[in-house]
TrEMBL record:
The keyword Transit peptide applies. This is Transketolase-like pyrimidine-binding domain-containing protein. Its cofactor is thiamine diphosphate. SUPFAM superfamilies: Thiamin diphosphate-binding fold (THDP-binding). GO terms for molecular function: oxidoreductase activity, acting on the aldehyde or oxo group of donors, disulfide as acceptor; thiamine pyrophosphate binding. It comes from the Eukaryota. Residues 564-767 form the Transketolase-like pyrimidine-binding domain.
Amino acid sequence: MYKKSFKLCRLKEINSNLKRQYHSDNVFGFRSKKKKIYEESRESAEAKNKESNFFRLVTAYRQHGHKYSNINPVSLSAHSSSMPELLINRYGFSESDNVNFDGIIHASRKEGSIKDAVKFLNRVYCSSIGAEYLHLEDEEEIEWLSRQLEALPTEEIDDATKINIATELLKSQCFDRFLAKKFTSVKRYGGEGAESTMMFFGEIFKLSAKGNIEQIVLAMPHRGRLNLLTGMLNFPPAKIFSKLKGNADFPPYYKASGDVVSHFISSTDLTYDDQSVHVSLLYNPSHLEVVNPVSMGKTRAKQMILKDGDYGDKNWSDKVLNIQVHGDAAFAGQGVNQECLNLCKVPHFEVGGTIHMVVNNQVGFTTPGDRGRSSRYCTDLAKIIAVPVIHVNGDNPEEVLKATRLAFEYQRKFRKDVFVDVNCYRQWGHNELDDPSFTNPALYNIIRSKKTVPDSYVEKLVKENVMSNDDAEKIEQNHERWLNDELKASENYNPPDVYFKKQWDGFSQAGEVITTWDTGIDMDLMTFVGTKSVQVPKNFEIHPTLLKSHVKNRIHKISEGINIDWPTAETLAFGSLLFQGFNVRLSGQDVGRGTFSHRHAMLVDQKTNSTFIPLNHMHDKQSAFLEVANSILSEEAVLGFEYGMSVEDPRNLIVWEAQFGDFFNGAQIVFDTFVSSGESKWLWQSGLTVLLPHGYDGAGPDHSSSRVERFLQMTDSREDRVDSDDVNMQVCQPSTPAQYFHLLRRQMVRNFRKPLIIVTPKILLRSPVCVSDFADMTPGTFFKPVLGDSMVVPSRVKKILITSGKHFYSLMEKRSSMGVTDTAIIRVESFCPFPVLELTKEISKYPEAKVIVWCQEEHRNMGAWSFIKPRFENLLKKQIHYSGRDTLGTPAVGIAKLHQKQAIDVVTKPFLIQTDQ
């Protein structure tokens, strides 16, 4: 199509040829002939020029038409009649000029007047649909969209479809009015003003079923959610009504605290003409948009289950479709959306294109749309990934239907994201108890003067003799009768047990005790995995430094079975789980190599730049694989994605590693609303494992602390009661490679899943003192929540130091250099669950000990101190002293000399505490 844009250059060439021809005629005396040839050529050039100018006019409509389209049902300003980019005289035309349509616009006629062409183009690009697509980079996509858009005006909606549209609109309106009448004080976040969005859902579901899509993963916020659940997703209104009356939404034998009614979900099969599709509407927290990456991760995991993807660049499936619904203000304002869009084409995160629908209320809470963003449209963020945006007037449900069909067809053809921006309004304020006229009086004067979308559409169909007012009244009466029946049923409603089914069969909630799981493996398997972890193809050129420090060093350690370092223990855990049939996914920024260049699970050929993952080539019949997902520079979206994968399939070990421990801050919303609370709110179990590098090594304020205190505060561990396995999440700081090995394996071998936060080391990764032996990982071994001290004589001990992680090695070194023999050092490896029994047993070994000291390298107002102190006092009935850095408003100092002084003080002071205190 764009070849026509070069026609002006061609015209110059034609004129140049004409001049040469004229000169030639003069030379040879063909004067009578030359005039005729020149005039014919000039007429041809003018025709070409007209064709070129017409193409420029058409392109202007395709590029600028959306700016003048009638897509706002509650506009505060009159529809603009001034369209400077689209004025025909700008392109040298008058209305009566005739032009050739063929090959330029996709109309049924091949030619016509400019007036006819403009009428056609206005109908396509400046009516109830406004499309943005010329920013796309692929000419094939642009041409395809041009054809589809220019065919929309002639697309007929049959009477049966129109009646179905009216039915869904009326059901949605009836539901909102029913709730308003029966539950007057409830914030229901209804769909009033946005009823046309039901057309998006209904059409997507139907097209998906007929298009052989097996699964839809749907993420949406609260507005209109209950309308969709009860209207299309087979959700019993009785459950909503029971919840609104204050009843529990889970069977009584489950431990769950529940969530608000506007976060309910459905997982159901929908059938259209004997073809079905399964729709999973995900739980969403009130932190808007954060569910989007979760939906992408869940989609990705479903694709893996269907075995219609792989672990390479193409990791999406034709059989699973991701749909995300956004609010206009939230989509423009929440950074997680940019992160998600940047993920959409990244290997190991791609899901084959998401269909987005924006419920464009044109106001965020109470902020008018034009003050809630700096761009023209709330969807302008979509342009960063060069995908089309279809704006549509929500007052016209038939046009919403057409826009949805177009979006679906585009996603199916090109496997890319696409946006449908439904411009609508909120009939009420942010919720039904809010008065929006406080801040938006002009807008709500317009809204309150309008007929509702369902009533307006019924009126239209009555005029078309498609249905009668009696028909519409019967639809509403039948739906209200059904809702009344459900309201009666809610009196005795018992929530069904729909949990721990399908891929979660065999799993359950954790019990009220702390269990121990044998996570050791045979030495032969350790040797096999360790050796295979550094084998590469014959022609693969590994980096010379890695050949020595990584390959040869690991083979040597594996052959001896001693001095196993941290990355090798991790490899043994991963490889043994793969051998047992568990998939492992490791995600984060450059995790293949590892932030500290310690892992090298993915090797790069130094000549070809190709990658190789040795653990995926252990044997020919291997059925489980390690997926190394080097992510974009994102925390929130990536962690949300990994969480989504973990809740879909419990047989995948999903590991996210922060580049530095404090990087989790960028994903705090995910930790708060999903990771720490998902099981309590929704009975969503997750075995997500999070690795947070931690240690005060002089890196300054930002990359020293993983802020373990924040995670401990998020746990539901109690200071007045002994913990069990059934804590909301585990927080551990293993101090040996073997302990780390057992933690990773324990995540998969248990019959329940819990999120695991592991505070991992930095300088210990290669430390010669931080090592384990094969004997620490053989059958019969397991993770130990407390490690005692075998280097002291118990009867001589007067003082006990309790510590964790890297700090243990610093204290051990200091004890040795000072020649101290009366002080034992005990390591707490698990903070949550808190190991009361193990600590009691270990402390009891030292009957002469008079002082117990908690030692940490973090500042007093950070680290585990505030968590440890009340538990020692309340559960162990022991007084415990503090030794560590003083309070500070930042995690670490940034002055090298001050850091060095603190590093010396923090390991010296514990040994100077008097034992007669």
